[in-house]
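A quick aside before the break. I want you to see a complete sequence-to-structure record at least once, exactly as it would be stored in a machine-readable document. Don't worry about memorizing anything.
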Amino acid sequence: MNKSSEADYADSIYIFYGTYIGVIFILGLFQNSVTLYVFIRDKRLHKFHNYFIVALAIADVGMCLCGHWMVVVSALYHRWVFARQGCVIYGFSTTFFGLSQISLLASIAFDRYLIIVRPHGLRFTTKTACILVAVCYIYGCVWAMFPAIGWSSYQLEGLLVRCAINWQSKTPFDLSFSLSVMVLGWMLPLFVIIFSYGGLFNRLRIDKRRQLLKRHRNKSKRHKNEGRMAITVLLMIGAFFISWTPYSVATLVAAFGPKDKVPTFLTVLPAIFAKSSIIWNPIIYVARHSLFRKSLSEHIPCLFCFGAKKSLCANRTNERHSDLTTNRREDISGNRISMNMARVKETFV
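That is the input. The structure line, written in tokens, reads:
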């Protein structure tokens, strides 16, 4: 491969990378902004369980506004163009919002565990939910701040158009941070999630067995809703971990494996996969939450019809048209009755 073909190959990689991140940026910002708008407008969704969903959407929007666009611009120039300060800002924001999200997902899983497994024990309230959301954000902020003030650092990685924690440093000081953030920032929330859902599904299995023994096949509406919400949360958690696990494995290899043994493309591909995590939560929530879909159709009907089937939109349009026609007919018939009554009165007078 000659130099010109190598240059064309490198250009195509940067163009693909920048285009991909740009699409994720637009979709993620739009979807999560719509999610926040619907939750703010509809008071039926103002339940403390949904505060965690709102916090996740805020983190996704923050990751878009504080990071993704910088990668797109740098990919166009084939280099990082925001100097050292921009590298620190980007690394801090992605680390902060990423660790906050996994902490929030662990909190949601534990909330589901308390509701289904321990219904008569500790329960979340609006106050405790707000406090826990704040704690998750503070937890992520603290870990993101350490590299900015000297415990490890934020450095360019991959195609050199984005910044992250300096995973490749082999000094004991930097390795201590890499190990700490992996254990306390990643594995600890993962343990909480596994513990919560292990107990949750065990409880659901026991309840199902009891229902079969008692021949009570019809579940209560509350029980069905709790089980459905548990599956929704599990899908959100699964999407997050599927997106971020390849990148986590790559960083572990870079941190504790042989130096300079990780090819560049093995760090680029997991990072590309991880960036897509911001688009999955709104899709899962729209697909699984009937009240949210109803609220979306009420507050943003054009978006609902755009994403729905044509037949459904046509039926909605026909229903509205028929309602208007019925109202007009009722008004006309009412006017005719009034005129006939007036004529009858005139006749008797």
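Two observations worth writing down. The chain has two domains: 3-306, 309-349. Strands lie at 154-157, 162-165. We'll return to this after the break.
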